[in-house]
Amino acid sequence: MRRALSTSTHLLAAAALACGAATLPASAAGAVPGASPFTFAVIGDIPYGDAQIADFPKVVDQINADPAVQFVDHLGDIKNGSTTCDDTYFGWIRHQFDRFQDPLVYTVGDNEWTDCHRPNNGSYNPLERLQAIRDVFFDRPGHTLGQRSVGVTSQADRGLPENVSYTRAGVSFAALHVVGSDNSLLPWTGLGKTAPTAEQVAEEQHRTQGVIDEINRTFDRAGDQRAVVLMMQADMFDPTFPQPDQMNFGAFAPIVRTIARRAAAFHGPVYLFNGDSHQYNVDHPVGTGSSWLRFYGVDTPADNLTRITVDGSTGVNDYLRASVDPHSSAVLSWERVPFN
User: Per the omega criterion (within 30 degrees of 0), is the bond before 47 cis?
Assistant: First the structure.
C-alpha cells in the first residue's frame, strides 16, 4: 500500500452525516412493497500482520454472532504490503472466508496481487498472482463465498468473476475490482521494471472497461430502486494526498467520471464503500466544490454520492454494520462495531 493513516479532513460532511445516514428526496422516498430490512457487515484491509492473522478467526466468529448481519463484504487487502503472497496463505484466508455463516462478497485488493512483485512479497509476477487469487476465491463464478452462498451476477464470461452485482431491499449493489497502486499501473520495481509493462497495461485496460460496464449496468438496473451501493478496495479520493498526482491516481479517471455522471443523473442516493487509506472517513468527493472534480475532469458534480472509507491496517478495531430500511425515508445507515 502507498498510503499512510490520516484523520478525516471532511468535518462538514461528517457532521452532516453524523448518524451515518442519508435521506432520499421526497419523490423517491417511498417504501419498497414486500421488501424486508437488510443489514450487512463491511470490513477491509484485514488481517494485517501476525497479531491480526491470529485474531481473524475471532473476527469471523463475532460477525457470525451478530444477529442483525445478513451479508458480509470484504473490501480487499487480505494481507499487508510487506508479506509474501504465497498459496498457503491464500488457502488459509479462503478457509476463514468459508467460515462466514452469511454470504460473503470479496472485492480484490492490491496487496494480494498488484504489489507482489516486491522482494518481501516474494518477487512474484503480479499477473500470475491475480490468476491465483481468481483460482482460489472465485472457483464458483456467480456465487458468493460463505456457508449460505447465494447467486450474484458475475462478469465471469469476460474473465472478471470478481466483478459482481446483486439487489437487496430496493438497493442495487456492485462489487468492483478497482485497486490502489494506481489501479495496478505502478511499475513492478521488484522485478526491475521502471514503467508499466505492455501486459500490465493490457490487464488494467481490460479490467477498467469491465468495471465501467458493470457500473453502467448497475445504474441501468436501478431505475426503480431507491439507492445504489458501489464497493471497491481503492481509495480514489485519498485525503492523505492533498496534492494528488497522475502517477498515483491517473488511472482512476475514467472510473470516477463514469460514477459521477451516473450518480448525478440518478434519482436517489449513491454510496461508495472503499478501504485502502485505512481510516474511517465519510465525505462527498465529487460534490459541489470538491477539488477532485477538476483533477478527474468531472463536469457535473454529484452531491448525492456519499463515500465511506472503512477502518483497516494495523489500527483497525471495528467492522462497519450498515442497514437498509425499505420502509423508512432513510435509505442507508451505518455504525462502527468494536471488535471484542
Answer: yes
